Task: inverse folding
């Protein structure tokens, strides 16, 4: 495993691979190594690229090296009464760079935006072995192509993040979770849609397969109290509400899909109104959790051929394969198949940053398919 000490080291490693026709897989904490097809490729650990470069709480901006642990970043901003508003999550050892490269966002995404919306700037190394800088450290000073949005969620396929600047926001003074019980999926979606569309400013809404619906209200204490008092009346036609004392484990399941039983797990993104239809058509024994008001549905099944991806497509969505036995991961692409034109555009963008395919490791078999499509 190669272990660069800084961006210059990283650029040299990538340039050598480009010159020799080698392949490199970028790795932060390794917590998402099982995503995608099995592969044997030389690893580049970014674990040594750690530390805070600049943090200005008054300006709500943090610049940090990509290998810094996500937990350390969250602890740092929490010590200043702030937060990463897109609510990233990850297993122990997850890094801020890997989190951003995977585009991880939690339950608050439905109101606060995704990871890409909070990435202001970056320093990265392209597949040519060239260091490039994109974006800026202030929101109003960004011109040209918005490369940070391109890098977020790219899974290291167009460049290696060495340093990134993210926007932080003040933490809410108070957070309360209201819950409803015993709702069927259609009723759960209707209740979440009503809450999110109301003037109660619900910041997150999720539902679990046992019929529990979770509604999060956050802000200054007097405002939270008033909105929590108003919500039962606003949702009277849908359900009764109760306040939960410890909702963290329930939000964790809704946000991550952890705890769902089944060897195969899918992350389905679709129009929220279609979530009940997806759940109704799942194979017998499948377990699920809804987040983002129904815009994300985690699905776990015990069978490899549950038709989840087909169902998602029929309902106007897409399904990513996030966990499966190795044989299935070798056969089934991690990402939902894209239209031919989209594949060609993606291939052109990747070639612009990585013309020799240094980062095309076989992890995402669909990349090879896209490269075969004429632009």
Result:
């Amino acid at each position: 495993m190669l272990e660069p000490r800084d961006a210059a080291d990283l650029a040299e490693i990538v340039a050598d691979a480009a010159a020799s026709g080698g392949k490199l897989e970028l790795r932060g904490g390794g917590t998402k190594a099982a995503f995608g097809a099995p592969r044997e490729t030389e690893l580049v650990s970014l674990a040594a690229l750690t530390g805070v470069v600049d943090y200005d709480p008054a300006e709500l901006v943090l610049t940090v090296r990509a290998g810094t642990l996500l937990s350390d970043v969250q602890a740092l901003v929490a010590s200043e009464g702030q937060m990463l508003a897109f609510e990233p999550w990850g297993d122990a050892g997850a890094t801020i760079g890997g989190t951003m490269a995977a585009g991880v966002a939690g339950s608050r995404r439905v109101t606060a935006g995704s990871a890409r919306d909070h990435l202001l700037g970056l320093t990265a190394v392209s597949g040519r072995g060239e260091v490039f800088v994109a974006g800026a450290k202030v929101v109003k000073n960004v011109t040209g192509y918005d490369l940070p949005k391109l890098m977020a969620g790219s899974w290291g396929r167009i460049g290696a993040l060495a340093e990134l600047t993210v926007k932080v926001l003040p933490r809410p003074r108070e957070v309360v979770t209201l819950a409803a019980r015993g709702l069927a999926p259609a009723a759960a979606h209707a209740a979440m849609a009503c809450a999110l569309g109301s003037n109660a400013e619900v910041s997150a809404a999720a539902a679990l397969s046992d019929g529990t619906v979770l509604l999060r209200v956050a802000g200054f204490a007097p405002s939270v109290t008033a909105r929590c008092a108003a919500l039962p009346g606003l949702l009277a036609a849908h359900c009764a509400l109760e306040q939960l004392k410890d909702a963290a484990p329930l939000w964790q399941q809704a946000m991550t899909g952890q705890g769902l039983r089944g060897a195969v797990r899918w992350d389905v993104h679709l129009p929220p109104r279609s979530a009940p239809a997806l759940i109704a058509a799942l194979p017998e024994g499948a377990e699920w959790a809804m987040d983002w008001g129904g815009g994300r549905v985690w699905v776990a099944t015990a069978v490899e051929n549950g038709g989840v991806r087909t169902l998602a497509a029929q309902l106007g969505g897409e399904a990513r394969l996030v966990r499966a036995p190795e044989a299935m991961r070798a056969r089934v692409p991690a990402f939902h198949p894209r239209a031919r034109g989209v594949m060609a555009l993606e291939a052109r963008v990747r070639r612009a940053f990585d013309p020799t395919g240094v980062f095309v490791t076989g992890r995402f078999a669909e990349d090879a398919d896209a490269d075969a499509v004429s632009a």
Notes: Residues 338 and 366 are 9 Å apart (CA to CA). The domain at 174-253 is CATH 3.30.70.2190 (Alpha-Beta Plaits). The first helix runs from residue 7 to 20. The two ends are 35 Å apart (CA to CA).
